[in-house]
Amino acid sequence: MLWQQLVSGGLFLLAAGLFLYILRLKRAMEEIRRDFAARLAEDTNALIGVSCRDKSVCRLAAALNEQLIVLQSQRHRYERGDAELKEALTNISHDLRTPLTALGGYLELLRRQLSPASKPVGHLTAQEAGQTARYLACMEERLGAMKQLTEELLHCFVAAGEGEEMGEVSINAVLEESLAGFYGAFTKRGIVPEIVLCSKPVNRRLNRQALSRIFDNILNNALKYSDGDLRVSLSEGGEICFSNRASSMTPVQAGKLFDRFFTVESGRDSTGLGLSIAKLLTEQCGGRIGAVYQEGRLTLTLCFSQPAGMYKTSCPDR
Asked: What b/e sequence results for 62-84 when a residue is b if at least 16 CB atoms lie within 10 Å of its CB, and e otherwise?
């Protein structure tokens, strides 16, 4: 009958349509499989594309693209970290080799000075005794440099680990404690700091120990590069500025101060890790830090603008 023929024809068309639809889905799945494998094997920002317009297939491709973006970001981070680690190991090897070589040289000089072929220790002349004392002083200074480098490396690796517990902290109080701790060092260098702190308490949710180390590292940097002055200010908005004359500095060097192991030639006993650690800790605390060199003055600016109880900061980049 006619209606049976129509039903049979409709079913045939439906089956043919479903068959073609399944073929398109299989082709789309194959495209996704091939593209996904290629994106994983290549270092590329290209994403998965499909020719099929099916919403479910498009959602699958979009979800896979999101994961690809995450994987690519993690890959780039790993590659950068691997390159930084290799550079750090190279710098560490060089920084340790230098004082070790110096120690070896002074030990050889002492060995010759005190060898049996020479005079007994008790019969050294005044000149020989003076040379021996200088050799020992140089060895002590080199050992101190190695100890400082080792401690800074330890702090660097600790700072790169998981963030420590935070609590409400008075920036005013921590900054005053750090300045008081450097009073003797400032006096020895003939530096009389100009300190301008707001009277209103500036409280933020931070790690107190990390904040103290940030201030200490910045003040220690000022001791190394200052021409004899230092100005420290704290605003109610949580911005802390450290400014000093630094004739030995250049704008290019100022831009590299936070790079790991970077040192300026005039830096006194610098390891190149202090400000790198300060930047890492500042960012872990949700703050920002930057350096600007203008008209012979170096200015380091810290910003902790979030109200107490909040972690994020709206402080603009510097």
From this structure: eebbeebeeebeeeeeeeeeeee
